[in-house]
Specification:
D-amino Acid Aminotransferase, Chain A, domain 1; globular; 15 helices; single chain; Rossmann fold; 26% strand; alpha+beta; 3 domains; Dna Ligase, domain 1; eight-stranded antiparallel beta sheet
Length: 448
Amino acid sequence: MFDKVLIANRGEIAVRIIRALQELGVNTLIAYSDVDKDTLAVQLADESVCIGPGPALQSYLSIPAVVGAALTRGAQAIHPGYGFMAENATFARAVADNGLVFIGPGPNAIELMGDKNVARETMKRIGVPTVPGSEGPLTSATEALAIAEAVGYPVVIKASAGGGGRGMREVESADAMIDAYAAAKAEALAAFGNDEVYLEKFVVRPRHIEIQVLADSCGNAIHLGERDCSIQRRHQKLLEESPSPAVSHELRQQMGEAALAAVRAVGYINAGTVEFLLSQDGSFYFMEMNTRIQVEHPVTEFVTLTDLVKEQIRVAAGLPISCLDRAGQPPHGHAIEFRINAEDSEHGFLPNPGTITGLRLPGGPGVRVDTHIYAGYTVPPTYDSLIAKLVVWGSDRAEAIERGQRALKEFTIDGIKTTIPFHRWVLAQNDFITGDVCTDFISLHGLE
């Protein structure tokens, strides 16, 4: 096991990683920007080091700053969390080239699965279902029109190098293709420095289902079931649950085997997530693979009795997966995660940074809060608006919903607007209660 690990991230995930490392007896070193000098992660870590000013390009996205901090402070490994450089193959390679361990997959796997076109072609080659569409990057709007005509409208144009809805445009007809193609390329270039885009058939009202995978260097690879991430706004997840109300034991095994085929195809090691679209007829299609820990990992932890962050650290240290006996086991109860963002969800989800003047966290049986905030903390406008994750567990989905309603009522954050009212609204909707949801849930309710 490592003696010291540098955490190259911020917010709730930095706190989560620090706690896991400390429970494993590992010294923690948090790298922070000057904007984050008062965060809970800096207070909890054994050591801290400022790596630059607030703008992420000068701190959290600076490879020399992060790697240099690890080397000068005697860390043996770097945990990237999620976001920032967690899926940056150049960063992972720089970490290894400097004699450090990257707590995540190798750079080759990150590159293979980070390029959406390469990932889709890899999945096709090994027989994992993919959505019909272009064979590679589109070369022109004319080519896009021809492929759309062949697969049928509606279609969606996506950035090859991106995710999270950036560089994505839904196209309903040929008349809209030229403008959509140009807009997708421009947004992809601005967001990812790469304007390559590809086209897929648009699956109407699907669910977004992802499979948690874990592989080690000892030859073990397992999946730990699915998460349903269908409650989204503009392709950004807001609520996740496990297991999915739409996935049977047989379908879970089919999707799990497809996810493990992806793991084996790219020689993947560490924790990762393979994401699928699940159509209304029960067909599923590969979307992408996230080569990191996910924001929503706690719901899997609840229903599999597994600490995924500790597993990441153990695997990176060369140890075998410690939860092999959990593979293929039925989910233990039901868990739901609510992303609490500093946003005014009652007025268009506008960012709402500011100082937290009062805070009451929910508690009781089956309630977990992952957060970095405290009374008096100022949420900066500089970074992502996620400030907490409320996760609830119940013996079944009905109890998890009831527990979520109770916990959300208890959860009070004064001084800023948050998405707590939105989540209370979701849990009151009959179609959510019955499990009849899709990725268009919010727009179908007129909240887009």
